[in-house]
Amino acid sequence: MRERRKARRAALEVLYQSETSDLSVEDIVDGRLFCRGGSLPGFAAQLLTGIEGCRGRIDEIISASTEHWALERMSIVDRNILRIAIYEMLSESDIPTSVSVNEAVELAKAYGSSESGKFVNGILGRVAHDLEELGAASANQDDTG
Known about the structure:
This protein is mainly alpha-helical. The chain has one domain (3-144): NusB-like (N-utilizing Substance Protein B Homolog, Chain A), CATH 1.10.940. The chain has seven helices and no strands. The protein is globular.
């Protein structure tokens, strides 16, 4: 399994554990409570730090990209897969958006419900479109400014 895929899975496990317990992501990582005999991959730690640093913005993007689905109504797995992918789309310029979306869909198929892959793909498709339009508008503004 590719290293980044393993890291995404580890990050998902930590985020899930944090939401289902009274522990923060930091407590889980510091206490090595996520671990099944291994250490947290560096990319997973990078994802977790980044997601925690801009969770409010990420959650706003998710909320703005869903129709009739409050963030709290989403499954914990789907919500955290979306957080991982959107963080990558916003902050990891070396990862193509299509890769972030594909990896998120694969995680959703593996760990979510039978509909999770489609759900995650649909939301991330809207987010990618919105971010692309925002980037184009910003570039046009820079050209005219």
